[in-house]
Amino acid sequence: MSTPKAENIQPAEGKLGVMVVGMGAVATTLIAGVEAVRKGLAKPIGSLTQMGTIRLGKRTDNNTPLIKDFAPLASLDDIVFTGWEIFPEDMYEAAKHAQVLDNDHLNTIKPFLENIKPMPAVFDQHYVKRLNGTHVKTGKNKCDLAQQVIADIQNFKSKVERVVMIWTGSTEIFLEPTAVHQTLVAFEKGLVDNDPAIAPSQIYAYAALKEGIPFANGAPNLTVDLPCMIELSKQTGAPICGKDFKTGQTFIKTVLAPAFKSRMLGVSGWYSTNILGNRDGEVLDDPESFKTKEESKLGVLDYIFQPELYPDLYKDLYHKVRINYYPPRGDNKEGWDNIDIFGWLGYPMQIKVDFLCRDSILAAPLALDLVILLDLAQRTPALKHLGIQEWLSFYFKSPQSAPGLYPEHDLFIQQMKLKNTLRHIMGHELITHLGLEYYD
């Protein structure tokens, strides 16, 4: 067998600029957390790039370095943050308002957070009904707004070596692709014509990709999962990936569902409900925004269970998802799942899960990993012009895959895909877990 060749990856030299769209609960938790880790006040728990290891070679080789020591990843010390927000508060005030981190945590890094002030955002209440932005850009049309975002990017680019953009803003109303999304030419004309099918998240994505900047989407909005964006991403060598951070209830689903399927246990019903009280909960109280989130959450089980291949086990599965706005909870979401399963000879059983999770605490390390890994992808010749980075499916409720190819939702297959991609670009043998070589 020929030895794999390592990719000619550009080194992670200089500052990595992170442009965050929507500087609310997730963004402030991410930014405050990175600074707390840099100051030695906390550990980066939940971050695969910072705490995860990767096995190289055989189990008997005992070669398991940290991922951050194996691949040429950007250092936390080199990350610089900026971004846009529809409210004018600095990051300290925004973090206090989000009420995710306690005052003791925030006060130790208060000067750092106060120093980060958001730029006015592209916002239209038509796409997020429950918010009323006061710190917003104005322009004669959507093309003008896109050019203003491009100007913001270019200004920031002059202060750092590389840039990545990540959407941590609210969930927009449900949109479906139209003619304006089919080609880059049609999309750019749509910007000039103020086409209503072009939402603010698409304006940000267009501006980022046009500037050759990788884009990650932490919400379920229709944003880069469009032919025009895939075209632009490949053209400028700006990687894109899936959408909607896989944090709480869906994370648990992508662990449990593969377990049932692996043992050929049937599932007749899966009822999921959530209560949360942060800005996300308020936005999702609007039926049009909830529809966008619902589509993202509902698709997971169909892809994992493959009912067309296993009709006796999953054809009649009844799957229901509910999200309820409950202000007393703040960012501390509660997700209940009732799962009706059946086993040998069709005998029924039940599993109930009650996940008391902290939404932004789970999302922040995912956002950090995505920023760091998208930056790596852009410095890697074999990945840069692919457009979609399917190996980053691990982080999303709605992974993006090549047109005509079904997405992989099983968390453990996703993790294998991610680690094998790292092995591949670094010139190491892939791990198959076959194991027969130990019994020769």
UniProtKB/TrEMBL annotation:
In the record, biological process GO terms are:
inositol biosynthetic process; phospholipid biosynthetic process
Which EC class heads this enzyme's classification?
isomerase
Domain Myo-inositol-1-phosphate synthase GAPDH-like: start-end pairs = 248-360
Which keywords does UniProt give here? Answer: Isomerase
EC number(s): the record gives 5.5.1.4
Q: Name one GO molecular function term.
A: inositol-3-phosphate synthase activity
Query: What is stated as this protein's family in its record?
Result: Belongs to the myo-inositol 1-phosphate synthase family.
State what protein this is by name: Myo-inositol-1-phosphate synthase
